[in-house]
Specification:
Elements lengths: L1 H13 L7 H14 L16 H11 L4
Helix pairs in contact: 1-3
């Protein structure tokens, strides 16, 4: 179920449909957002460059632009 959620959200992100998915965000990614307090709206990286696929994965998991 988690893999399907990540796959679907990555496909939506790459198709330009945004970071959110109604079903998967409420069931799966609510818990990952809660790890960071649940109120994260934006994340910033300031160190070495991050690979594009890792960056997309983080965007999808935490439902926030990076």
């Amino acid at each position: 179920m988690i893999n399907a959620g990540v796959k679907t959200k990555l496909e939506n992100l790459r198709a330009g449909k945004g970071l959110n998915h109604g079903c998967y965000d409420k069931i799966i990614f609510k818990k990952t957002k809660a790890i960071l307090g649940g109120k994260v709206r934006l994340m910033i990286t300031g160190s070495a460059p991050i690979a594009g696929d890792v960056l997309d994965f983080l965007k999808v998991c935490f439902c926030a632009p990076i």
